[in-house]
Amino acid sequence: MTIVAVRPALVAAVLVACSSGHVRPSAPARPVRVNDVGMRLVQVPGRDGAPIWAAAHETTQGAFARFVAETGHVTTAERDGGAKVWRGSGWVIDPTASWRSVFPGPERPVVAVSWHDAVAFCAWLTAREAERGALPSGHVYRLPTDAEWEHLARAGVHRVYAGSDAAAELCRYANVPDEAAAREGLGREVFACDDGVGVGTAEVGRYAPNAFGLHDMSGNVWEWTASPAPGDPSSRRMRGGSWSGRLDALRIDRADSYPPELRGGAIGFRVVLAPALPREG
User: Are 213 and 26 in contact (CB under 8 A)?
Assistant: First the structure.
């Protein structure tokens, strides 16, 4: 495990400088740890003020491939009939679709994974890092709770979207339904900008981070959380919106809830390294 210091707002400052000639001040340097799988985690203040580590990026296909190679894990999509994917003119259930085939690329976010797949990944990573003696005392890798996710997305600032209040700026911070989506007939509504990647996922870290140094908290892929929906303990909350779908889903204060078996071409996850939740302890 390696720990270094970074300035999480540096990329944002460069982008702003290129577009407006004005550089916003960089955020204070934050410790970053890189685990044995190559995942970067940024130390940020938790909701109670105690520091936690949050993945700077959505979990990549490269990291997920390590998990599958070491455990033989078979995903929900591979076992139970595929996943929902975009096929040019609409969303369809493809019985052959899985994380291996949907928008492939080692630095792209893993998609077509269920909540159960995400939890299994976290358990593997916890055990792996514990065996190496690389876990802080009392910490585990897990999904953030719904409230933790919103805290991480806001990064101490009341924003509409992660990184910005302005829809016109969002293509600098996120892979969103944009003019490319309109050209492909994907978007019912789109942002009047072009995020540069066409229709589909983008490699993680392509866009500017928020003030905590976290990328893609709005857009790219929906992110599973640990939390059930209020009044429905059988479902799980998802956050952040994606490259597809409703524009209001990209707002930090929006959440959707789905069965934990759901999987699709716009659904992934992000991990935190934090104290175990009560039900996990």
Answer: no
Residue burial 64-88, b: 16+ Cβ < 10 Å; e: rest = bebbbeeeeeebbbbeeebbbbbee
What are the φ/ψ torsions at residue 9 (nearest 5 degrees)?
-95, 5
pLDDT tens for the chain, residues 1 to 281: 444 333 333 333 323 333 333 233 344 588 999 999 999 999 999 998 899 999 999 999 999 999 999 999 999 999 999 999 988 778 899 999 999 999 999 999 999 999 999 999 999 999 999 999 999 999 999 999 999 999 999 999 988 999 888 888 889 899 998 888 888 777 668 888 888 888 899 999 999 999 999 999 999 999 999 999 999 999 999 999 999 888 999 999 999 999 999 999 999 999 999 999 987 43
∠ at Cα 253 (250, 256), nearest 5°?
70
Q: Which of 96, 117, 73 is nearest to 261 (CA)?
A: 117
Taking alpha carbons only, the member of 7, 113, 14 closest to residue 58 is: 113
User: Which residue is listed with tokens 């209001």?
Assistant: 248
Is the model's pTM score more than 0.85? yes
Burial (CB count <10 Å: 0-12, 13-18, 19+), residue 278? exposed
Residue in the structure block whose two tokens are 């740890």: 33
> Are the CB atoms for 262 and 124 separated by under 8 Å?
no
**How many Å apart are CA 255 and CA 123, to the nearest integer?**
25
